[in-house]
Every structure is written in structure tokens, then in C-alpha cells.
Design brief:
Elements: E1 2-7, E2 11-17, E3 24-30, H1 34-53, H2 59-66, H3 70-78, H4 92-102, H5 107-124, H6 135-147, H7 153-172, H8 200-208, H9 213-223, H10 231-235, E4 241-242, E5 247-251, E6 263-267, H11 273-282, H12 301-311, H13 320-333, H14 338-345, H15 349-356, H16 362-384
Antiparallel strand pairs: 1-2, 2-3, 4-5, 5-6
Helix pairs in contact: 4-5, 5-7, 9-11, 13-14
Length: 444
């Protein structure tokens, strides 16, 4: 079916037929060893056989395809051997295991995708063939997440988006022909019920109950600095804080993979300065990190913060650290433009609008908007009321409105309503022409 041909000065190619009695085709390999050429020929023969019989690819052939560079894939596509040729004989369990092994993501992201993979295994089963999962079953999977698993709308949305990402990998690895989750409704990924604006008054009560300067600073960096906690405060070093220039250099592990996203400069806000100075004075000689005592991974910062909130006599709120950061961004957006705030907080305008921005006090803002408009209108009415009797063309009680000409102000301009002086510029074509009253002033 196929053969390796050596020609020229050690160049090799694979000659083959894609159908009986069809034209002979070739794939030029360049200067490769005979053994490498024979391995490629074996995979090409497998692709041709799968194409002729409509059988799915073996897992070995699928892995070989997935590892090819774009140049070789382009050659195979030209010959009809790399697109729509068949699917790997891979079970869902084997595929998900491969995805987990191949992924190089942060720990929090790995946990998130781990929940999604667990849901897929529970619903479809380990032995389910990847190629047999269709759109109808993807819709049923979403309904199962909502009904049987009782997950919130935002959680369901995020897991469906994760399924789309997982299946895109399957398509790239030639283990699926299409993405059954591509058109599954996700819903909003934002859970408004878990959003809470934490006022300055409440946070000061919490700060008063913190056991030491480091805990006060940790809470302050989240609420007044908008830092992601715990990752960004724990990465903060004393040489990142410039008291003289009023800046803080923040290192973000979450955005470090983006261009220029690993470091941002945040103002040393007035609310943070005393907290930082207090912690600096109490820090051990030669301390490198701003937060030193809570660096042990065994320390549960959420549990500790919940206890502090309880001692302050305040009801705790959902997403303890996240809502502190969101409250700061909401606060800053009332005083600074969106682009500036996003640069300080370290997110995009889209993320800020969807997940962070809240109303600090919707009722108060509404009343202020209404009262402000009413007060301005009333002020204008009071300023113009004494002059109304002297305005030309203004109706006086019992009098009819008079045209400007009858009021003694002959402007020298023809009347727009005069039937014998109708402008001619709007009728023949769409090009505007100067009209007779252009440039006439309505004053003496």
C-alpha cells in the first residue's frame, strides 16, 4: 500500500495509494533516517486503512497525529488524511486521565477542572467511548448538574465552559469530531447572591479585633489595596513597598502567564500606609516578606478571618476575601476611570463589570440622582422666572404667540413657512445646497 523511496542525496519520500487503482501520491520527508521514514509510513498506512473502512484511529495513531507539527499536518490535510478521517478508540476515562497528565496549570485551576472531570465520570461512566457523546447528552448532563447535583447557576456555567475546553482538546487530539458542549446554554457565571459590599465602618470593626499587626495588614491589603488574598499579600516583599514614592509593587501568580501581567504597581493608599508602617516597625530585623507569620500552608486564613469577624460582632459574608477585593474596586470606580482602576486591581474591564463592580448603596444613589435632577431643574426655573415677561416670543397670559417679524425683529431672512419662498435644495438630489436664509442672524 505504501513504500519508502530514497532519491537524490539521501532524501526520502513515502509513495502510496489512497484507493485501489487510484493515482500514486507522495509525502516528501526530506533528509530523515530510513527507520524514521518507516515509522511514518506505518502511521500513513493506518490512516489510509481507516479512511477506506471508516474505522476509528487507534490510540497510538491518534497520539502520533496530535504530536505532529503544523507543516506535516498541512501535508496530510492536502491528501485528506488528517481531517475527518476517523476517531480514536478512546474511552472517556482514558481521555480524562490523559488530559490531567498533560495539563500544566496552577493548583487552584487544577482543582476546578478536577471537579468537572469528576462530574463527567459520574454521569457518563469511565468506559463510555468519547466519540459517542452527542449534543443531546451534553444538554442532559447540564440538567443533571442543576437537578441532581443541586449546583448554583454560576457553578454550572463554569463547569459547562470547562467541558467545552476539555472537548476542544479532544478534537485537537483526534478523539472527537465535534464539540457537543459548544452550544449548551451556560447561564451567568456570576452569582449575585454571593456579592456583598463591605463598608469601611464594618472593616474597621474587624481590624480592631485582629490579633496583631500582620493580620490587620492582611485584611487591609485585601480591603484597601484590592490584592488577591492570600497569593498576592504572601508574595509581597518589603522592597516592593516604596514609602517615599507611595507605590506598592504587586506580584500576581494568577496573571503571570500573560504578557506584562505578573507585576503591577498599586498606589500606597492612605488607608494602607499606617497599617504598613505598623507592621514594618514590628517586623523582625532583616525580614524579607511583609506577611511572615501566616505563610504556612496549614494555616486556614478563611477560618481565622471568620473567627475575627465573629469577635467583631459582625455577620460574616460570602467569599470572605474576594468580596473585600471587590468592595475596594467598587469604591475606586466611584472616583477614578475604569482603565485606571483595572490597572491597579489587576483585572480587565470585562471581568470588573461582571464579577467585581457592585452598588455600594443603591437606594442612596437612586435618591441622590433623583434629588439632584429635581434640585437642578428647580434652580433653573427660579433663575429664569423673573425674565420671562421680557422674552420675545414668549406667551403672556391672555396673549397669543407672535412671529418674530410682528414683534418688531425683522431679521431679513425669509420665513421657513412662506409658501412662495420654499427652499429648493432638498428636492432635486441629495446634495445639500446653500439656502436663502443661511448665515442670517436672528438679531438686530
Amino acid at each position: 500500500m505504501a513504500s519508502v523511496v530514497t532519491y537524490g542525496n539521501g532524501l526520502r519520500r513515502i509513495d502510496f495509494l489512497t484507493e485501489p487503482n487510484g493515482p500514486r501520491r507522495s509525502i516528501r520527508l526530506g533528509r530523515v533516517t530510513k527507520r524514521s521514514a518507516e515509522r511514518i509510513m506505518a502511521h500513513v498506512e493506518a490512516l489510509i486503512a481507516d479512511r477506506m473502512t471508516g474505522a476509528p484511529h487507534s490510540d497510538e495513531t491518534s497520539r502520533w497525529l496530535a504530536g505532529l507539527d503544523e507543516r506535516m499536518l498541512a501535508r496530510l490535510r492536502t491528501l485528506g488524511l488528517a481531517e475527518g478521517v476517523g476517531l480514536a478508540r478512546t474511552t472517556l476515562g482514558a481521555f480524562l486521565e490523559r488530559v490531567e497528565t498533560a495539563s500544566a496549570v496552577k493548583e487552584s485551576t487544577a482543582v476546578f477542572y478536577g471537579h468537572t472531570r469528576r462530574n463527567l465520570r459520574d454521569y457518563f461512566g469511565e468506559d463510555r467511548a468519547m466519540a459517542t457523546i452527542d449534543e443531546a447528552e451534553a444538554d442532559s448532563f447540564r440538567a443533571w448538574l442543576v437537578g441532581d447535583q443541586g449546583l448554583a447557576t454560576a457553578t454550572v456555567a463554569r463547569r459547562i465552559v470547562a467541558c467545552r475546553t476539555i472537548w476542544r482538546q479532544a478534537i485537537r487530539w483526534r478523539m472527537a469530531r465535534s464539540n457537543p458542549f459548544e452550544r449548551v446554554a451556560t447561564g451567568s457565571q456570576q452569582n449575585a447572591k454571593r456579592q456583598r459590599f463591605i463598608s469601611v465602618e464594618i472593616i474597621h470593626r474587624v481590624l480592631d479585633e485582629c490579633p496583631d499587626a500582620e493580620w490587620r495588614l492582611l485584611v487591609g491589603l485585601a480591603r484597601f489595596g484590592g490584592l488577591r488574598t492570600p497569593s498576592e499579600p504572601l508574595a509581597l516583599r518589603w522592597d516592593d513597598v516604596d514609602f517615599h514614592r507611595g507605590t506598592i509593587r504587586v506580584r500576581s501568580s494568577k496573571t503571570e502567564q500573560h504578557r506584562g501581567g505578573g507585576v503591577r504597581i498599586v498606589p500606597l493608599f492612605a488607608e494602607l500606609r499606617p497599617l504598613l508602617l505598623d507592621a514594618f516597625e514590628q517586623a523582625p530585623e532583616g525580614a524579607e516578606y511583609v506577611i511572615g507569620r501566616c505563610r504556612d500552608s496549614a494555616v486556614n486564613l478563611r477560618t481565622q478571618l471568620r473567627r475575627i469577624i465573629g469577635r467583631a460582632g459582625v455577620e460574616d459574608w460570602p467569599r470572605l476575601w474576594q468580596n473585600l477585593r471587590a468592595s475596594r474596586e467598587t469604591e475606586l470606580l466611584r472616583s477614578y476611570d475604569l482603565a485606571t482602576v483595572c490597572r491597579w486591581i489587576g483585572n480587565t474591564p470585562a471581568v470588573a463589570a461582571q464579577h467585581y463592580a457592585m452598588s455600594a448603596d443603591l437606594g442612596a444613589d437612586f435618591r441622590r440622582a433623583v434629588e439632584g435632577d429635581a434640585g437642578e431643574a428647580q434652580q433653573k426655573a427660579q433663575q429664569t422666572a423673573p425674565d420671562r415677561s421680557g422674552q420675545v416670543g414668549t406667551d403672556s397670559p391672555g396673549e397669543s404667540r407672535k412671529p418674530l417679524r410682528d414683534a418688531g425683529l425683522d431679521t431679513g431672512c425669509p420665513s421657513l413657512s412662506s409658501p412662495d419662498k420654499t427652499p429648493e435644495w432638498a428636492w432635486e438630489d441629495s446634495n445639500l445646497r446653500p439656502h436663502p436664509y443661511q448665515g442670517c442672524a436672528l438679531t438686530n
